UniProtKB/TrEMBL annotation:
Keywords: Membrane, Transmembrane, Transmembrane helix. InterPro entries: Extracell_DNA_Util/SecSys_Comp (IPR052534), PilN (IPR007813). The keyword Transmembrane applies. The lineage of its organism: Bacteria, Bacillati, Bacillota, Clostridia, Eubacteriales. The keyword Thylakoid does not apply. Coiled coil: none annotated. It comes from Ruminiclostridium sufflavum DSM 19573. The chain crosses the membrane at residues 21-41. This is Fimbrial assembly protein PilN.
Length: 329
């Protein structure tokens, strides 16, 4: 009978080795998976915690910003409510607060800010407006005072001492405005109601064109020739200062014995403007001109008051009021 157990020993030994190697490989792979997992899971968990932390910090920052906005809004709301209450009380005494604020705003140069405004009085004739302001420098303060005087809306202007702000942060000062001059000018609306200006009631509109308007005083026995007010509209790409300089250069070459008295920057219709006073001769008569130049939307506006020099000095305040009344809608 044949022996059926004919499998060689070498075969059995080799099979056992393969089994050991396979088991060892599986063990190594398993150990590798364990090691990788032991490193990866904390890293992934840490990354998730970091993202969650960043998200929570963003939410906290957003909440803080919202709280700050709410506090700022409440502060502004309280200030507006106080102004409304103050305005209502003044309106009951027939004091036009809006006109007062507009007059101050129009006179304010760019580098000047009003921090506090208080108004009191029983009527516009004795109204008292106290302002606390900060300006970039003394030049801005001087411009503010000059604009207020040119406007002639307030009867008196009292400027208190000027002090340096904290850490040289501008100049702080107080100013008191008292009394309001009555506006007795006749209002003229022209160029399809895009402009408005006041003029003396008995003056006459002598010319109305698309680019020119002339208003002339009645003939006077005391004046060599009647005074006049002229509005001219020109196309331009220049800014107000350059436009005014080009205008004066042209006048210097066209007018006889032209001489510049002064020229300074101001504000009109919330726009940069230039006010210029100059003299010249026409038909052997010495005239003085007060002129306002400003630019808006590619259009240059020129407002010129002209009268003989003797009459000009007597009516300078009303002339300033006329020029300041010019408004572009």
């Amino acid at each position: 009978m044949k022996d059926l157990n004919l499998i060689p020993a070498s075969y059995v030994f080799e099979k056992k080795n393969r089994y050991k190697k396979a088991s060892l490989s599986i063990l190594v792979i398993f150990a590798g998976v364990v090691v990788v997992s032991a490193y990866a899971f904390p890293t992934i968990y840490e990354y998730g915690l970091k993202n969650e932390k960043d998200m929570l910090l963003q939410q906290v920052a957003g909440t803080s910003a919202y709280v700050a906005q709410v506090n700022e809004f409440n502060t502004l709301k309280q200030a507006v409510e106080a102004r409304e209450k103050e305005g209502t009380a003044l309106a009951q005494r027939q004091i036009n607060v809006l006109k007062i604020i507009n007059a101050i705003e129009y006179a304010s140069p760019e580098r000047l800010f009003i921090q506090k405004l208080d108004a009191s009085g029983e009527s516009e004739a004795d109204v008292k407006v106290s302002l606390s302001c900060v300006a970039e420098n003394e030049e801005a303060i001087a411009s503010f005072v000059r604009n207020l005087k040119d406007d002639a809306y307030f009867k008196t202007i009292g400027l208190a001492a000027i002090a340096k702000g904290k850490e040289n942060n501008g100049e702080t000062f107080d100013i008191v405005l008292t009394g309001v001059n009555k506006d007795e000018l006749t209002k003229y609306y022209g160029w399809d109601n895009t402009i408005r200006i006041g003029y003396i009631p008995n003056w006459i509109i002598t010319e109305e064109k698309d680019n020119r308007i002339s208003i002339t005083a009645s003939a006077s026995l005391t004046a060599a020739k009647p005074a006049s007010l002229e509005l001219v509209l020109e196309s331009t790409q220049l800014q107000a200062k350059a436009f005014a300089e080009a205008r004066q250069s042209k006048l210097k070459s066209s007018l006889e014995n032209y001489s510049l008295v002064y020229s300074n920057m101001t504000r009109n219709s919330r726009l940069d403007a230039v006010k210029t006073v100059y003299r010249a001769e026409e038909e052997n008569i010495r005239y003085t001109y007060s002129e306002l130049c400003t630019v808006k939307g590619g259009k240059g506006y020129i407002v010129t008051y002209k009268s003989d020099s003797a009459s000009f000095s007597n009516t300078e305040q009303i002339i300033d009021r006329i020029l300041k009344s010019f408004n572009i809608n």
